[in-house]
Amino acid sequence: MSLNAAHDLLRCPHCAADLDPDGSRWVCPTGHSFDVARQGYLNLSGAAEPANADTAAMLESRTRVQSAGTFDFLSDCLHQQVPGTGEATTLLDVGAGTGHYLAQLVEANPPARGVALDVSRAAARRAAKAHHRVASVVADVWQPLPVRTGSIDVVLCVFAPRNPAEFARVLAPRGRLIVVTPTADHLAEPRERYGLLGIETDKRERLLATMTEFLTHERTVSLRRMAPLPSEVVDDLIAMGPNAFHDAPQPGTALQVTLALDLHVFRPLLTEG
């Protein structure tokens, strides 16, 4: 089913008309047509893949970290924040990567369905297999999203770029946006030990200032864990993120690691409840 999960959620990236499935293609009324990749995803980006798109190797590392349960505490919190069965029926995961979190939420909330959106084709190939009610789409978050206005009950943005104007546009009137970001001390131990990329200390303040121009901030949940991680998970934590583009080390050392995240919930500006 996969792509059919988005049968009434996508719009043309060229003219913003509704996109509908037509055999092995998706088409809009003005004649634009997009072929479904043989791996089951739909490419609506219309541009070359950027150099900083997630690679297959990064996604392998991320899959191993997720399979190890390293971020299960985040999954638990996401389940608490997303409305229950029958309330949140359409979900959009922006910068979805493997589609891990979206697939979990869809599975827990039938008949919910979702769109996994990522600029990486390698990510789209993985997300296409994440769940039978998840459609995988290649698109750039910095551009207008190929998603119909007001069609999404929950937008997820987990460790991903943010386009608040577009998030606000695609949200349903009573929808919610969930943004997850690392705090300054996230992965502090490997960052200090191996000279990895840092995180801005004012990240939360800058995020809220940017987002609240388009959305109402409802709450922030701070999550923090100290986790004893084996060497292979430490290696994958480093290799699955932006450090992978900066000759990051493969230390091969077990560490006690700080996992520290902020989960922010926003709603449309005109929504009061």
From TrEMBL:
EC number: 2.1.1.188
GO molecular function list: 23S rRNA (guanine(748)-N(1))-methyltransferase activity; metal ion binding
Pfam families per record: Methyltransf_25 (PF13649), Zn_ribbon_RlmA (PF21302)
Ranges for domain Methyltransferase: 92-175
Membrane-spanning segments: none
Keywords: Metal-binding, Methyltransferase, S-adenosyl-L-methionine, Transferase, Zinc
Annotated InterPro entries: Methyltransf_25, RlmA_N, rRNA_m1G-MeTrfase_A_prd, SAM-dependent_MTases_sf
23S rRNA (guanine(745)-N(1))-methyltransferase N-terminal domain boundaries: 11-44
Binding site for Zn(2+): C28, H32
Protein's UniProt name: 23S rRNA (Guanine(748)-N(1))-methyltransferase
The species this protein was found in: Micropruina glycogenica
Taxon lineage: Bacteria, Bacillati, Actinomycetota, Actinomycetes, Propionibacteriales
Gene giving rise to this polypeptide: rlmAII
